[in-house]
Amino acid sequence: MATSNNVKILGSFASPFVMRARIAANLKSVGYEFLEEKFGQKSQLLLQSNPVYKKIPVLIHGDKPVCESLIIVQYIDEAWSSGPSIMPSDPYDRATARFWATYVDDKWFPSLSGIARAQGEEAKAALIQQVRDGIALLEEAFPKCSKGKAFFGGDEIGYLDIAFGCFLGWLKACEMMNGIKLIDDATTPHLAKWAEKFCSHCAVKDVMPSTDKLLEFAKVLAAKFKAAQS
């Protein structure tokens, strides 16, 4: 059985994808050293550990690197028996969770991340609507996945909770930057309750960045994007 000795996570406090690895490790009570990568730079350890994509997060277990956030989550679940299972036990439930996690990464997140870079109010409004549409789909999926319990994974945080929940900090920052509401009691009651429970969970609350900190980081990203455009 794998142990928690010599576990490192390479990442950034602001990265939702890095949060996935950290939440999974916390859920499984895996001790790890968090190595913060400097913004705009790539450490030699990162380049050596992830020579294909050269990006965070990377989990290093002993001398073995594991790359890509959702792969890391599954690895942690399989390598450590401590804590609750992250992946659903039922094959269909596992397939459903993987389907929605892929949807979040491939279809929904690009719309969210594109809002800050949108050229013009019309383009921004279209992206915000795409984000709302995706949230509506997840609101509809929640009762089916959760089976009436607190999380997508049931009684405890699971794979889809981690895959989607890691973006809640940036969703809040997006709401503040654009004067909108994306998750609230009126339009998305299931997700509103879920988000509150997710963010207050002991595996999450210490790694979820504050909105103010993310807003400051967003200014840095915006300046970098503007410089690249000029």
From TrEMBL:
Its main location: cytoplasm. The keyword Transferase applies. One of its GO terms (biological process) is toxin catabolic process. It comes from Dillenia turbinata. Belongs to the GST superfamily. Tau family. One of its GO terms (cellular component) is cytosol. Pfam families: GST_C_2, GST_N. It catalyses: RX + glutathione = an S-substituted glutathione + a halide anion + H(+). This is Glutathione S-transferase. PANTHER family: GLUTATHIONE S-TRANSFERASE U17 (PTHR11260:SF615), GLUTATHIONE S-TRANSFERASE, GST, SUPERFAMILY, GST DOMAIN CONTAINING (PTHR11260). InterPro entries: Glutathione-S-Trfase_C-like, Glutathione-S-Trfase_C_sf, Glutathione_S-Trfase, Glutathione_S-Trfase_N, GST_C_Tau, Omega/Tau-like, Thioredoxin-like_sf. Residues 90-221 form the GST C-terminal domain. Keywords: Cytoplasm, Detoxification, Transferase. Residues 5-84 form the GST N-terminal domain. Is involved in the conjugation of reduced glutathione to a wide number of exogenous and endogenous hydrophobic electrophiles. Its EC number is 2.5.1.18. It is found in: Cytoplasm, Cytosol. One of its GO terms (molecular function) is glutathione transferase activity. Gene3D superfamilies: 1.20.1050.10, Glutaredoxin.
